[in-house]
Amino acid sequence: MSIITSVLALLGISSCADFKTVEPEDFEASIADMGAQIVDVRTPEEFAGGHIARAVNIDVSGANFLEKAEAKLDKSKPVALYCRSGKRSAKAARILSRKGFDVINLDGGIIAWKDAGKHIMADSPFEVDSFTTKSGKHVWINALMHASIWIQYDGLNIYVDPVRTLGERKVRYDRLPKADLALVTHEHADHFDKELLDSLNTTVVTNRRCAEMLGAGEIMANGDKMDLREDIRIEAVPAYNTTEGREKFHPKGRDNGYILTLDGLRIYIAGDTEDIPEMADIKDIDIAFLPCNQPYTMTPEQLVKAAKTIAPKVVFPYHYSSTDVSGIKDMLTGINVKIRQYQ
């Protein structure tokens, strides 16, 4: 911000030079940086009808807009604003730029965004969690549904066990960003959706059985490692049942869990497994997705034991269906437990 603009801001005088208004292509390029904060300034009802991925909703026409924005947004990171047609977001841009935010405004709003063929997310209960790698890059993790996870890193979109439908729950992958990689743990229908994987038209990393069913894919067995780039590594680790009579669900040696390392940030996605002995060899985990629904995976007590063995910084219980996981937080101290209610 220039000295003149700063003085105007102190005097409460708006200036169009305080922010940029850009076309959809430039707006998309700006938000490709995972550090950009995307804000939909329409009403909650409009937001629910469809919005840009990763956007948060702060209604510029609602009460205490500036107070809410300052509470939610980081002034050290750029803010990308949009509304229906661009008028309300321009108003919001003037308000925020006066307060020292680095703001860009989407010309034509979400109407222009749609007309340009850009992705829109329908109303959903998705909740995005943000993490930072050792060199300061952003990783966004969205536990979409049951065992399906969407990870964004450095402009890449990684989908884990992508499945479109489970009971009444649905995920519209056609409204999400194009997949750069898919990881599939095993062949069960709540993890493996052949038609969807075919449509994603991307690299699929999976076990031998799923690759055979898919007729394609990069095969990894337990213990294998793969470097996609110097900052992205995939490790396949065991995932299986140990309780007597339940080995048939996930036999030892067939399925994969994965450790995904993104610029030093280590994410353990356990797949369908119990608290197996091999977990003692899984070290230095930042984020762990641990399943919890016997008879197929773990009981809450097994999950707690697994978490204490692995000792991650953050645990997401997932794949829990109707299992009550509410007591896990009290059973784990020193580990940040994030329970998402939309599983």
Strand content is 25-35%
Low-confidence stretches: 1-17
Radius of gyration: 22 Å
Structural class computed from helices and strand pairing: alpha/beta
Helix content: 10-25%
Quote the average pLDDT. 89
Gross morphology = globular
Task: Give the terminus-to-terminus CA distance.
Answer: 44 Å
Largest sheet: 7 strands, mixed
Number of helices: 10
Give the beta-strand count. 21
> What is the topology, as strand order, of the major beta sheet?
6-7-8-9-12-13-14
List the helices and strands and how they pair.
Blueprint: H1 3-10, E1 19-22, H2 24-31, E2 37-40, H3 44-48, E3 56-57, H4 65-72, E4 79-82, H5 87-98, E5 103-106, H6 109-115, E6 128-132, E7 138-145, E8 148-153, E9 156-160, E10 165-166, E11 169-170, E12 181-183, H7 194-200, E13 204-206, H8 208-214, E14 218-219, E15 225-229, E16 232-239, E17 255-262, E18 265-269, E19 287-291, H9 300-310, E20 314-318, H10 328-331, E21 336-337
Parallel strand pairs: 1-5, 2-3, 2-4, 4-5, 9-12, 12-13, 13-14, 18-19, 19-20, 20-21
Antiparallel strand pairs: 6-7, 7-8, 8-9, 10-11, 15-16, 16-17, 17-18
Notes on the protein architecture:
- By secondary structure, the protein is α/β, with parallel strands linked by helices.
- 22% of the residues lie in helices and 27% in strands.
- It is built from ten helices and 21 strands.
- The protein has helices at residues 3-10, 24-31, 44-48, 65-72, 87-98, 109-115, 194-200, 208-214, 300-310, 328-331, and strands spanning 19-22, 37-40, 56-57, 79-82, 103-106, 128-132, 138-145, 148-153, 156-160, 165-166, 169-170, 181-183, 204-206, 218-219, 225-229, 232-239, 255-262, 265-269, 287-291, 314-318, 336-337.
- The strands form four sheets. The chain has a seven-stranded mixed sheet. It has a seven-stranded mixed sheet with strand order 15-16-17-18-19-20-21, with helices on one face.
- The longest helix is centred in the N-terminal third of the chain and has 12 residues, at 87-98.
- The protein is globular, with a radius of gyration of 22 Å.
- The model is unreliable at 1-17 (pLDDT under 50).
